[in-house]
UniProtKB/TrEMBL annotation:
InterPro entries: DNA-bd_dom_put_sf (IPR009061), MerR-type_HTH_dom (IPR000551), MerR_fam (IPR047057). One of its GO terms (molecular function) is DNA-binding transcription factor activity. Pfam families: MerR_1. The keyword Ligase does not apply. The keyword DNA-binding applies. Coiled coil: none annotated. PROSITE patterns: HTH_MERR_2. Residues 1-69 form the HTH merR-type domain. This is MerR family transcriptional regulator. Keywords: DNA-binding.
Length: 118
């Protein structure tokens, strides 16, 4: 698929995709005879995963490091697992904090609904 189709499919602008390519998050992008980028289903899966990491708070430099390690093959599995495990631990803490915030908001909303607060 071309840049426009890929951009629409993954929900990122062409500018962002070119930037990801520049910093090494998108590698070995095929090009057609006229030099235009041609993306594959593998590229869609990878960018979808990158977006998931980013949307869950992983910094871009950490994602770039993860991508760099991925190029190292099976020798880097432990390092990649470590990166993802640390990120997971952070997400669990964040979820717990958000649940506490939600409980506090629910408590306040229920006070308003009950009419016990002026």
């Amino acid at each position: 698929m071309n840049m426009k189709e890929f951009s629409k499919k993954v929900g990122l602008s062409s500018h962002t995709l070119r930037y990801y390519e520049k910093i090494g998050l998108l590698k070995n992008i095929n090009r057609n005879a006229s030099g235009h980028r041609h993306y594959t289903s593998h590229d869609v899966a990878w960018v979808t995963f990158v977006k998931r990491l980013k949307e869950t708070g992983m910094r871009l430099n950490e994602i770039v490091e993860y991508a760099r390690l991925s190029d190292g093959g099976s020798d880097t599995l432990a390092d990649r697992e470590n990166i993802l495990s640390k990120h997971r631990e952070g997400l669990i803490k964040q979820i717990s904090l958000l649940e506490d915030h939600l409980k506090a908001l629910d408590y306040k909303i229920n006070l308003y609904k009950s009419g016990k607060v002026c």
